[in-house]
Amino acid sequence: MDLHVIGPLATPAERAAVDAILGPAESGWRGGVRDTGIDGHVARGGHAARSRRDLLIPALHAIQSRIGWISQPALNYVCKRLTVPPAEAWGVATFYALFATSARPPVVAHVCDDLACRLAGSDDLCADLERTMGLAGVPDHDGERTWLRSPCLGVCERAPAAMITIAGTVPQATVAAPVDAAGIAARIGPDGGGRTEHRDHPVPQAGQPGLRLLARIGVVDPTSLDAYLASGGFRALERARAIGPQQVIDEVTAANLVGRGGAAFPTGRKWAAVAAQPALPHYLVCNADESEPGTFKDRVLMEGDPFAVVEAMAIEAFAVGATKAYLYIRGEYPLAEARIADAIARSRDAGLLGDLDIELRRGAGAYICGEETALFESIEGKRGEPRNKPPFPVEVGLFGKPTAVNNVETLVNVLQIVGIDGGAAAYRAIGTDGSTGPKLFCVSGNVTNAGVYEVEFGVTLGQLLAMAGGVPGGRTLKAVLLGGAAGVFVGPEALDTPLTFEATRAIGATLGSGVVLVFDETADMAGALTRIARFFRDESCGQCVPCRVGTVRQEELLARLASGAAAAHGRRDDELALLRELGQVMRDASICGLGQTASSAIESALRRPEMVAL
Amino acid sequence: MSGDGLSMDRDPAGVANVPHAGEPPAAQPLTDILLRPAARPSRIPQPPARPEPALVEITIDGSPVSVPAGSTILEACRAEGIDTPTLCYLENLTPVNVCRVCVVEVTGSRVLVPACSRRVEAGMEVQTDSDRVRLSRRMVMELLGSSVDLSTAPAAAGYIERYEADPERYGPPARTAAPGERDAHEAGHHHPPATDAAETVLQPVKVDNELYIRDYSKCILCYKCVEACGEDAQNTFAIAVAGRGFDARISTESAVPLPDSACVYCGNCIGVCPTGALMFKSEFEMRGAGTWDESAQTVTETICPYCGVGCVLELHVQDNTIVTVTSPLDSSVTEGHLCVKGRFGFQFVQNRGPRQG
Ligand SMILES: Cc1cc2nc3c(=O)[nH]c(=O)nc-3n(C[C@H](O)[C@H](O)[C@H](O)COP(=O)(O)O)c2cc1C
Ligand code: SF4
Ligand code: SF4
Ligand code: SF4
Ligand code: FES
User: What is the distance in angstroms between the Cα of B226 and the nearest Cα belonging to chain A?
Assistant: First the structure.
């Protein structure tokens, strides 16, 4: 490959941002200053540079957060440093919503207009912003700031939410919630930067006895290793090292722990498969991309008990024989990211991690990167396009090596199992036969006390809603979205359904990522469905035809139904039939779970005229 | 070892006994024959024999079939004479399995599987023409037909007919994008849908060099050109997929015109493009003028005159003029791929102007 790089040189600020990640350029070949002494007639770069391809996205983040957008010269400089063809780097930069590839002001308010925030008035908020600041994406008069609409920011319990990013030598990212137009204006105004947020507690149960996964949240200082150790921290890792990897895997298997990321795959089986692979090295990836609309449990765990996530990763790495682990966190979680980074550093400095190296990687605004194989691609510095399976990650995963991927909540459960002798049996006794253990639910929307709730599997939907204070204002419940945008709408008849994998499956629903998003009688259901359709259209990676075009057609169809255009042309029944066929081809022929579930929630609502009349 | 014609242990002294050239051959004493250098190998050395792959038993549409282990379902279907549609698959490229028109039903699989890349496993039960398969294939063709200009993609038109796809039912095509508009779409920025028209990828043709044009209104995003330009053949990496979702598109770095890009005009992307989105400028201009007539063209196979590699060229000639150049996919020298000289360096052959000094 012969790198062909054109155009002007990157500015000193752009180069400094990249060099902060990649180190100084050591020669003219790599974009540094030409020096005959060093450069001579010897080519440099080559394999050594290409082997660092996985630093492409961190380097793009560095430019984005220093300058506010990624110019062509800046992109070219990264390409020279890493020997990445500029066309490919352009393909990567244009894939991620948090990277701007055309000039954008340094101060941006990313305003959530997704499901929970809509219920909390984000449409009005956006209308206010249009009046006061102009249309989304248009810079203000001095070109310093703008606002953009964003998909779910994962702070649904405090909706409506906005993330403020301020590019500069000391880049800032904060989440403000709940927030109104005046609050956003104040935060992005000339002296708004650096304001720290007062946060209400996202865990209404905080401090209650009997909590397992949430026991430390709101109780133990999440920034103190000593506090974590004093509350029993790192004892599970110690025990794991004492009983050996095989015993750890056996206990996790015996506990019947299944993944909490949405696919409900048995965790012990996954670990055993990776541990048994002859190919080396083995990798561990903690999936903290949490971008399913309505999901915020992983954020709460990472913000409130980050050492627990780190300890659980160390246990899993030990069990599957990995000495390198990655934690991939979505780009919209600045506080969780800082807490995790801090927890990793403190644990490592205290010598608690042994030979394990945990690297933190930040996503850049792409829901699809939560899909495990898209996540690998993203860590490898590529577009987040899911791979075809088989082969499965346990055989061919990150960098082509056997990889165990687990969700944050799954990992935290491991501490309950491995933490004490007999933990597996005790764990299995919690919940039901088919769904063991404690479970976190993200309750939001039209409820009195939104937040993350820990229950035992088997609690009914009605009981959970009662814990959250029910629908406020004496209004009645219309629908609950279970499992997020990729989930299913259920009606009040499901209140008696136990929240277990088997019982939700029996009523054609799913627990997905633990989303319980409540809509009362006043909620605009047609608007919610349109938002879901829009979400999938915007977040499709675009690789396969059924999803790339199908999500567009689905959104158009809903727009025709919602606007009355379909009925006006006497085509309502045709349109509904077409929607079902679209659903089927997306479900049957798409490469990954995004396309396969893109019609699920919409179809489930349209089957019920009492829920939504279109 | 000495009997295989490859042994190195001949006697150097024997060289002296070779008769002088021009001397009449005399009756040769036995010692002469024995001391003569061993004959040069008379046959081309063969690679070591490889065991035949084991056969795997599967059923396709109910009939038992034995296929070599490691074959794809597509290869198994082809061996059985079952015609499976494909758009993003090409023998000389790594399968990307993105178009999904080749999907088949495999018992026990929750979703349909792409025949082009899924390998057979013993006992697999494959259905190639079930209702589910037909629906998915029809819908894939409808989705493509309603969003892309397939007018120069004969295979696609055939599939639309075969699966009775009706691309019109999504409404009339939405407006054609302005020049550069689609290239500027940023990921995650929403474009609200029309309620009276179907979104398409229609956009102006990119004509920015003398050799070939890029008409991305016709692009089905099969990734073939990207593979041919990159890892699978050319290793130039001048183009890649940019953007996301329906905004995804084939692009040079920062969407610059081809002459500013890394493109070396090998034309290998044209060679693999299944839709005519990438086209010789000569063909594009003739089509524009209404003079393109494939039935009036002859194809002459020859060897590229430029360098010593010896690439096989197919000259497509209409009215005694070379109109395009291709290379056969199954050529062991090129696998269908050429360089700029073989692909485009034919103008001198038909320079009919007055001879220059
Ligand atoms: C479109 C899509 C998005 C996903 N997003 C996430 C996510 O944000 N977090 C997560 O843990 N799993 C997500 N998953 C599931 C992962 O692919 C994978 O199954 C999971 O991380 C495995 O961990 P677990 O076994 O602990 O659940 C997603 C899957 C799909 C198809
Ligand atoms: S289903 Fe959608 S998100 Fe998944 S690979 Fe296909 S286009 Fe990409
Ligand atoms: S002509 Fe060759 S170098 Fe240029 S884009 Fe096509 S394949 Fe790449
Ligand atoms: S330009 Fe042609 S080869 Fe390239 S992706 Fe589009 S249709 Fe495929
Ligand atoms: S030919 Fe198999 S997916 Fe395109």
Answer: 10
Q: Is the pLDDT confidence value at A202 over 80?
A: no
Q: Which of B189, B236, B244 sits opposite A541 (nearest CB)?
A: B244
Do A233 and A248 sit in the same domain of this protein? yes
Do A312 and A237 lie in one domain? The reply is yes
CATH number of the structural domain spanning residue A459: 3.10.20.600
Residues B210 and B133 in one domain: no
Same domain for A533 and A586, yes or no, is yes
User: What DSSP line would sit under A79-144, residue for residue?
Assistant: HHHHT--HHHHHHHHTT-TT--SS---SEEEEEE-SHHHHHTTHHHHHHHHHHHH-STT---TTSS
Instruction: Check whether residue A319 and residue A244 sit in a common domain.
Output: yes
Claim to verify: residue A262 and residue A379 sit in the same structural domain = yes
Q: How far apart are CA A448 and CA A177, in angstroms?
A: 16
Mutate to test the pocket of ligand 2, among A292, A369, A385, A388 (most ligand atoms within 8 A of CB): A385
Q: Which ligand 3 atom is at minimum distance from the Cα of B270?
A: 6
- Report yes or no on B309 lying in a domain: no
Q: What is the pLDDT of residues B246-274, one digit of tens each?
A: 999 999 999 999 999 999 999 999 999 99
One domain, residues A334 and A256: yes
Instruction: Say whether pLDDT at B130 is over 90.
Output: yes
| Model confidence band, residue A26 (pLDDT cutoffs 50, 70, 90) | confident
In the numeric block, the tokens 């051959």 are attached to B25
Question: If pLDDT is split at 50, 70 and 90, which confidence band does B7 have?
Answer: very low
Whether residues A466 and A387 fall in one domain: no
Size of interface A-B (CB pairs under 8 A): 201
Q: What is the pLDDT of residue A29?
A: 61
A359: pLDDT strictly greater than 80: yes
With respect to residue B245, please indicate whether it lies within any of the assigned structural domains: yes
CA-nearest of A322, A312, A502 to A416 is: A312
For residue A17, give Cα distances in angstroms to A49, A64, A78, A167, A171: 18, 9, 10, 11, 11
**Residue A40 counted as domain residue:** yes
Mean pLDDT value of segment B301-318: 96
| Residue A523 confidence (pLDDT) above 90 | yes
**Res A189: pLDDT:** 82
Six-digit token string for B46? 């063969």
User: With contacts defined as CB-CB under 8 Å, which chain A residues touch B274?
Assistant: none
Q: Does B195 score more than 80 pLDDT?
A: yes
Instruction: Establish if A465 belongs to a structural domain.
Output: yes
**Residues A293 and A242 grouped into a single domain:** yes
- State mean pLDDT over A265-289: 98
Domain boundaries, position A444: 438-520
pLDDT digits (tens, 9 = 90+) for A405-431: 999 999 999 999 999 999 999 999 999
The more confident residue out of A41 and B357 is: A41
Cβ of A600 closer than 6 Å to ligand 2, yes or no, is no
Chain segment A532-564, per-residue pLDDT in tens: 999 999 999 999 999 999 999 999 999 999 988
Please answer whether residues A90 and B240 qualify as being in contact, where contact means their C-beta atoms are separated by less than 8 angstroms: yes
Partners of B199 on chain A (C-beta within 8 Å) are: 552, 556
Our answer on whether the CB atom of B148 is closer than 6 Å to any ligand 5 atom is no
B134 & B179 share domain: no
Would you say the pTM of this structure is higher than 0.90? yes
The verdict on B281 and B183 lying in the same domain is yes
Q: Is A366 in the pocket of ligand 2 (CB under 6 A)?
A: no
Phi, psi of A272 (to 5 degrees): -60, -40
What does the DSSP 8-state code read for residue A417?
H
Domain residue limits at B248: 175-187+198-292
Give Dmax (Cα) for chain B. Answer: 99
- Report whether B125 contacts B147 (CB < 8 A): no
d(CA A431, CA A455): 9
Please judge whether B239 and A551 are an interchain contact, meaning their C-beta atoms are less than 8 angstroms apart. no
